[in-house]
Write a structure and sequence with these properties.
36 strands; mainly beta; 10% helix; 8 helices; 13-stranded parallel beta sheet
Length: 511
């Protein structure tokens, strides 16, 4: 598993909708720590998916052939699931449904079972039961049901606890649970749900016993998650946010409203591949809107990304940290033609980024590679090297292992985006206005072939990372090679960096 960007940044120290720009810059990083507030968007992907305010109602009567579940009978859902064959439809009557008081009591579906909630149907764990739905049965459907009050342990989930394949979770409210609201299996569809106020994640897309492929997350509202504030409880755990993705091969993340989560909104961490992240509204998350870390091949397009990273970005600026803590953070990730996907690049385009704490950072930790003690995804190797022990001297110093033992930030195209910044809205004067492509000075371990400025030179000049044809509104600065090289727009566009060819700077409203 990965870690937060901060642990890596400490080592570094050893188009587009018109947007109203209020000119000027007032305040400082010590200004009042106001949190952004959300309101319906009228730009980019359109209005937010407001599922939580008015969840769609389920069937008021039992469908033909469905088994009716009685909320007045404790454990009725578990017992009727046990006593009926696969492919049964269960209709939960209005009311509060409860499981037995044993903490491990849970519903274990059979293949193809369907669970439909009537208006007002709630499955309540009463802060006693750990899991709501578990087991290995495939192709289960959960629809129009509220699931709340379960107490899953850290890194575990309440719905689809065992990451079974082919589940459909739709039009449901999964809220106020510990751990993750739900887990994910292969071929899972998560559609039109409210994932709200869960203790760690809204969803933890992790499958420990097989491939997790072809995940669809569409039209959900994902808000207020990580109520347990796990980064404070376990600093550097990298284990919080709206949704976390681990080793997912093929994901379509579209039309979601991801807002006001404590920590990151969407975080793809460790050997993910082939993501399409499009038409989402990502706003007012305490940390980055999106982190794509030690992963491959993605398209990020047509999203509105606004007022993110105000809490975490300001916190590190107030400490005097010089790392360009970004709202879209690409960490040791990029395009790799040898890993099959719908694209062989990491392409970020046609997005509107408005009044976030900084913009996009491309980062590569020189000391983080397969088999390095500095690799926070310690049990994992890249998708190009199956056995991490191969990444050692003397072979790692030569091709192909020299390249293949690293997760490389390469083949990243950032174009046709609109970057809008009004520092007076954020209440800052410095460190909230940066785009960056950089690495640290390699020092560790002593057998590393990547010491010195090798990785910084590669990510900046050799790995085909390009900004071009963007629009910049407001004051922006640029960081290249390492945190000490802070550039203005002219220096950013000039040799040796030659970034943002064809881009427009300080464009007036509507430009």
């Amino acid at each position: 598993m990965g870690s937060t960007w901060r642990r890596r940044a400490r080592r570094a120290a050893a188009v587009l909708a018109p947007v109203l720009l209020v000119s000027g810059c007032v305040g400082s990083s010590d200004a009042p720590k106001a949190r952004p507030t959300t309101a319906p968007s009228t730009s980019g992907p359109g209005h937010p998916t407001r599922v939580c305010a008015k969840p769609p109602a389920g069937p008021a009567k039992a469908p033909a052939g469905a088994v009716t579940v009685d909320p007045s009978v404790v454990g009725d859902l578990v017992e009727k699931t046990k006593s009926h064959p696969a492919h049964t439809t269960f209709w939960l009557k209005p009311g509060r449904h409860r499981l037995d008081k044993d903490r491990f009591s849970q519903v274990v579906p059979k293949k193809g079972d369907r669970y439909l909630g009537a208006p007002g149907a709630v499955l309540d764990g009463r802060k006693t039961n750990q899991y709501a739905f578990g087991g290995s049965a495939t192709d289960v459907t959960l629809s129009h049901l509220t699931v709340q009050g379960f107490v899953a342990p850290q890194d575990e989930g309440v719905v689809n606890h065992d990451s079974a394949d082919g589940w459909v979770i739709e039009h449901s409210v999964i809220q106020r649970n510990s751990g993750a609201g739900l887990m994910a299996g292969a071929r899972q569809t998560v559609r039109g749900n409210c994932l709200r106020g869960n203790g760690q994640y809204g969803m933890n897309a992790y499958k420990g016993d097989g491939p997790l492929r072809d995940l669809v997350v569409k039209g959900n509202e994902i808000t207020g998650n990580n109520t347990g504030d796990w980064e404070r409880r376990r600093p550097g755990c990298g284990c919080t946010g709206g949704v976390k993705f681990w080793a997912v091969d093929g994901a379509d993340i579209s039309g979601n409203w991801v807002h006001e989560n404590r920590g990151t909104g969407l975080w793809a961490d460790t050997n993910n591949n082939d993501f399409r992240i499009e038409d989402n509204l990502l706003e007012a998350n305490d940390g980055a809107a999106l982190i794509y870390e030690t992963s491959y091949n993605a398209v990020v397009r047509d999203n509105v990304i606004r007022r993110n990273n105000w809490v975490e970005g300001r916190k590190y600026a107030d400490r005097g940290d010089t790392f360009p803590f970004a709202t879209v953070y690409v960490s040791e990730s990029g395009g790799e033609p040898r890993v099959p996907a719908r694209t062989d690049k990491l392409e970020i385009y046609r997005n509107v980024l408005e009044d976030n704490w900084s913009g996009i950072t491309l980062w590569e930790n020189a000391d983080r590679f397969c088999n390095s003690p500095a690799n926070t995804s310690s049990g994992d190797c890249t998708l190009l090297v199956k056995r991490k022990k191969r990444c050692a001297q003397p072979g790692i110093a030569e091709a192909p292992l020299y390249a293949d033992c690293r997760w490389r930030t390469q083949r990243v195209d950032i174009h046709a985006n609109r970057f809008v910044l009004d520092k007076s809205v954020l209440g800052c004067t410095v460190k909230c206005d940066r785009m960056a492509v950089l690495a640290n000075y390699g020092t560790y371990p002593d057998w590393s072939p990547y010491k010195g400025e090798k990785v910084a030179e590669a990510i900046t000049r050799e790995q085909h990372n390009r900004w071009y044809d963007n629009v910049y509104v407001g004051p922006w600065t640029f960081v290249a090679h390492d945190p000490s090289r802070v550039l203005d727009a002219q220096e950013w566009q000039a040799a040796p960096y030659r970034q943002d060819k064809g881009s427009a700077f300080d464009t007036p409203v509507g430009g």
